[in-house]
Amino acid sequence: MIRVLSKKAILTIATLVLGITLSGIGVSCMSLEPSQFLTYTDEANGFSIEYPNNWHTDTPKDSPELKVSIWEKEFGLNPAGIMVAKYAASGYTLESFFEYRKNYLVSNIKNYSPISTEELTISGVPSMKHTYTKTVGPTTYKSVEVCIIKNNTGWVLVFNSPEASFDSYKSAFNTCFNSFRLLK
User: Fold this and answer.
1) CATH for 30-182, among 3.40.1000.10, 1.20.1600.10, 3.60.15.10, 3.50.50.60?
2) Which of 37, 80, 93, 102 has its CA at a distance of 20 to 30 angstroms from the CA of residue 74?
3) pLDDT digits over 118-166, tens only?
4) Would the pLDDT of 5 be above 80?
5) Environment class of residue 53 by beta-carbon count within 10 Å: exposed (0-12), middle (13-18) or buried (19+)?
């Protein structure tokens, strides 16, 4: 099937390619205005999150915790992405849930290397933000994982991209996590 792209889609793709190319030489071009974001709302799971309007959403079926993944590219190698996962977390505190997630990363992620951890507030709820790198095939990714606990539910927001272009996505990622809302 041949897909015909509109002038707007071609311009968007050209802008992304230029942004990724320039990010490799230290110039950040991925600054997006709020009007360039859509809102993904999942009433059944009780959350919403904004994402860049030219990114692609997917509701994975293979992981019961993963509720949505949002990717810069629908197809292709090394996309930047956002994921939202929801866990039953009865009895967990923010600190113990964060430790559970860190232990998971250490045990399951090839070449996991922590960078930083900080406390913040998302949707009015205390949260933990953890930045790290990992290797997938020949590519090193930089990831940010935010853990939230509310009403015996653990939320994990993950933002990642190839390390070489990570800084060019910071503005978009920050808009996404600052937009995350719990609906219940």
Assistant:
1) 3.40.1000.10
2) 102
3) 999 998 999 999 999 999 888 899 999 999 999 999 999 999 999 999 9
4) no
5) exposed
